[in-house]
Structure formats: structure tokens, C-alpha cells
Amino acid sequence: MKLPEALRRLEELGDDKVKAQNAKRGAGDNQFGVRRGDLRKLAKEITPDPALAHALWLTGNLDAQLLAVLLWKPKDLSAPQLDELVRQLVFADGADWFGNYLVKKHRGKEALRLQ
């Protein structure tokens, strides 16, 4: 799957109620409001792809970044890359997913913790 198709799918899955709830909790406007379960289903349809994950991340869109977290494998990222990405997080749900799906399982997590 390429970036335009992934973004189109995310937009189709968007829900105004979820978007409003996320915005109320500080997510901002750059989001589609995709339900977390729908994000997980979409991620299962896509072959893990670090390049697509990186492209999704760079959009700054909340849903795209959450999908990126599901598409990356901890071994795909170096400790400096993780450190750079974590500094770009702006929403609590993104930080939770990033920590649980990537940092927690990364081989360099202890070194990152000590920084």
C-alpha cells in the first residue's frame, strides 16, 4: 500500500464523534477520528512496511501516526530514530501506543531510559 491509499482509507474510516472526542482531549485538527479498533484492522491488512510507516508519521496526522506505530517493528528502528520520533509526539494516545508497541519491545530501551 502506498501513502495516498493509506490516507484515503484512514479518511474513509474517520468518525466525527471520535474526532471531536480526540480534539477535546488535545489532539488538534490534523486527524480523521478513526476508531482504534479500525486502525488495528487496517494495520492487519497492510504488510509491515517501514517506509510506509515513516511516510505516515511525517504527515503529522494523528491517525496516520498511530497506524505507523502498528506498521513498524521495534527492530526496524534504531535507538536514535526512536528518540527522534518520541520527541515529535503531541498527543497522549500516540505516546501510549508508541511506548507500548515500540519502545517497550525495543532492544535499546534501557539505554534510552537512561538518557
TrEMBL record:
This is DNA alkylation repair protein. It comes from the Bacteria. It comes from Roseibacillus ishigakijimensis.
